[in-house]
Amino acid sequence: MNTRTGKVIVNQTITADGYSAGLDQTEEHPFGDDGGDGWGSSLHSWMFDAGEENRAEVDQINAASAVIMGRNMFGPVRGEWDRQWNGWWGDNPPFHAPVFVLTNHAREPQPMEGGTTYHFVTDGIESALKQARAAAGDGDVSIHGGATTINQYLAAGLVDELRLHIVPITLGAGVRVFDGVPPRKLEQVTARAASTVLHVTYRVLA
Amino acid sequence: MNTRTGKVIVNQTITADGYSAGLDQTEEHPFGDDGGDGWGSSLHSWMFDAGEENRAEVDQINAASAVIMGRNMFGPVRGEWDRQWNGWWGDNPPFHAPVFVLTNHAREPQPMEGGTTYHFVTDGIESALKQARAAAGDGDVSIHGGATTINQYLAAGLVDELRLHIVPITLGAGVRVFDGVPPRKLEQVTARAASTVLHVTYRVLA
């Protein structure tokens, strides 16, 4: 009998002052005032401009068997789904797995190319996690963000592992991981410095 | 002619959510609600319980040729110096160098054993830095904290290097490095993971 179950992993790129996005997020600037082009260029250059150096961490992010994200991370459309918005990631999203999008507005599942299907969950974070776990089987569930969604899962004690990718800029304002999360004890599992990012993995103990 | 001048270095131990002390700091609990005994035990165990593993970083902190700290870090005495308070560190403090304490209340210099002398600076952070640089000669000036003092120097653009020692707990509230500091570009110079702390050094570029 195989009783192994996967972990619930958070993956988030943050600034040295803990922000995952700046103020004034819009469709044109999904990361708001992010110290760059508003598309998170300075936040994510470790992934896009230094992919080889950070291959292990990128592969780990892409290895999730199911993904959870907030509606703000999925896209800028608010309220009813009155536009055919299928995410920021084009026809063949990088997830290649079921993605559970937290929303207040019901919508039919949206299959995409390459194995990604967007499922829309209207009954809260615990339901989304239950569905994601069922879809992931023995694999890991990755809570991809944004920070508001991550903080809800952290506050509810539902996260096993927190993988932060800390980039050398500060924003001074915006959306921050850990905001509103009560004190937690962590265990530093691994940490690795690449040239433009610091990868750290914490186990959430209590 | 030797034109070399030392650097202005910040050294600060912070939680994974960026706090250097919790709420409700008092004389009995100088670090407030710090997730431990109020004396920062959980914040500073990397220094005191794992000294050998972190010898290089402790030595580096102690190598400063002059130190700057805020009055709240120096002690709990407020207003006029109506008590003979000579810091938290006993008769032979670990600095072995001149220490410039930011305060609004004048006081004569206080020599201690082992080469430490406390100087009290009433005319602001730039004056304290000028005096510390003069005292340090070619050596480095260390801004020891707390976060409120560090943030003033960061906001004024007076810091060359930021050495953060990130410990695996979160506090959820308190005094935080970077609060009120405008966006900064940093360069990640070095990073090293010990078993219970992550040491990262940033150069402050702009």
TrEMBL record, chains A, B:
Q: Which residues cross the membrane?
A: none
Q: Mention one GO molecular function.
A: 5-amino-6-(5-phosphoribosylamino)uracil reductase activity
Where in the numbering of this chain does the Bacterial bifunctional deaminase-reductase C-terminal domain appear? 7-198
Q: Which InterPro entries match?
A: DHFR-like_dom_sf, RibDG_C, Riboflavin_Biosynth_HTPR
Question: What is one GO biological process annotated to this record?
Answer: riboflavin biosynthetic process
Could you name the domain of life of the organism this protein comes from? Bacteria
Q: What is this protein called?
A: Riboflavin biosynthesis protein RibD
This protein's species is Virgisporangium aurantiacum
Instruction: Recall the taxonomic lineage recorded for the source organism.
Output: Bacteria, Bacillati, Actinomycetota, Actinomycetes, Micromonosporales
